[in-house]
Amino acid sequence: MAILLILVLPVVAYGVFQLNSLTVDERELTTIYRRQLESVLFSVNQTAQDKSEEFFGTLQKGEWKQQPDQVLDRLGNYRFFFALYSKELAGEEEILLAPQPDWLTPEFRSRADSLVWAHRPIVDRLVRYLNEGNFQKVQSFESFLVHNKKEVDFQFFASKAGDKVFINIYFFSAVGFIEQALVPKFQEMAQGDFIITCNRISDGTQIYSTSGELVGDIESEPLDLLPRFEVGIAREGGTVEQAVNRRKNQNLIALGLLMMVMIIGVWLVFRNVQKEMELAQKKADFVSNVSHEIRTPLALINMFAETLLLDRVKEEAKKKEYYEIITKEVSRLTNMLNRILSFSKIEANKREYKKSRLDVSAVVEDVMSTYSYHLESNGFEHTMQLHPKPLEVMADREAITEVLVNLIDNGMKYSPERKQLEVRTTKTDDFACIMVKDNGLGIAKNQLDKLFEKFYRVPTGDVHDTKGAGLGLSIVKHIIDDHEGRIKIDSQPGEGSTFSILLPLAKKH
Fold first, then answer.
1. How far is residue 71 CA from its own chain's centroid?
2. pTM of the model
3. Each residue of 329-373: pLDDT tens digit?
4. Which residues form the Histidine kinase domain (predicted)?
5. Chain CA centroid to CA 130, Å
6. Which domains does the chain have, with CATH numbers?
7. What is the pLDDT of residue 461?
8. E-assigned strands of 142-183?
9. Which residue, 223, 306, 243, is CA-closest to 51?
10. Where are the beta strands (DSSP E) in 381-508?
11. Quick one: DSSP state of residue 239?
């Protein structure tokens, strides 16, 4: 557990650091977006100013009092222009210039004159700017006129002609100015990244938008030269906050997945280390078990061989008994060494099988015939039931024999009291089945999954109570897997175990 904590703590610390960095990055991103929006709004106002100066520059290229027709020709490109009213402040001279005759009426002239007197303080200020600093300022208004059912915006500016000072009122369509002068700029700046709109402030009526759909809030401010209108801007697909939150969520998901992968990786490393430690322990137990298993028969062989060599046994029956014990222990050593060699070949992927068509019932019969003496000498009752028809499979006879011997030996080891063993062959669907049943100790359910692991032995108290190295069932599993077969176990603690080996039947000729 301590190892897991040592591995996980750096991952958690990294995650916290990344979350903090992400928060800082998102704040900086928000600031950058805000500055971008302010820059766009400033640029729009600057364009409006430039277009207005362009118009007044065109207007002032000639004397509109002496050459009105030439001035009107120059102003023909400005579709938003309605009329220009000029009044001498210290005299009686006044001029009304318009491309359409319906603006050149006494009624409209009177309305223009009334505007001058209604805004006298503003007029005086514009004249003072002109006289003191030769600065010609254009004054816009939030109010408007209605003439010929049209909304008419107006601007004041002062001018000089010789010693005379004039106050001028420029009447125009603000909507027309926006459409002709600002819409191209809106389109140029939007370019799929922003949505730019222009609305009338008084009622929120939209004059223009670069997109038909506006999602969420919009940053807006009035136009300097057109105070009745405001320009709004938003990011395509949502507000800055929405964009930042969306990116933040994406980064959080990516970071979460990264953290999950790292934690899973740490867990896998921990699990592998734990398995390696368990495997090392099993290997240590294996060495201990094998040493114990080898030492016992060697001690017996040495003792009885020495006794016979010194001719201390005179009775022939006793000699025969000692010879049988030596033969039995040699057989045990041989079986143990064969299993270790077989397991070594399997682990190195060097185990080769010479598969041929054979009858599993015949193999079982041969094994039981050979092994019956061993079973009986150890006090086991055994039965054999064979399927009435041949059960042919493609298999290595030696390997299948090894499987049977391991299962029978396993049943003998774990049947200390009820020494009964049953072996039979059956047919299940397209498989030949070999069943080995004992009435021994049985296996608990929580041990079944580990049963075929190398070096694993079902715990039964003292590890040396039951002889073995923990390789037999592992070898069985490898052999059956290499023959494309399956193993089934039916076991209850105290009631014995049944191992079923299923091998695919060979195809008929």
1. 68
2. 0.46
3. 787 677 777 766 766 666 667 677 788 999 999 999 988 887 787
4. 289-507
5. 68
6. 81-172 (3.30.450), 292-351 (1.10.287.130), 353-504 (3.30.565.10)
7. 47
8. 145-147, 150-161, 164-172
9. 223
10. 381-385, 392-395, 420-428, 431-438, 486-492, 496-504
11. -
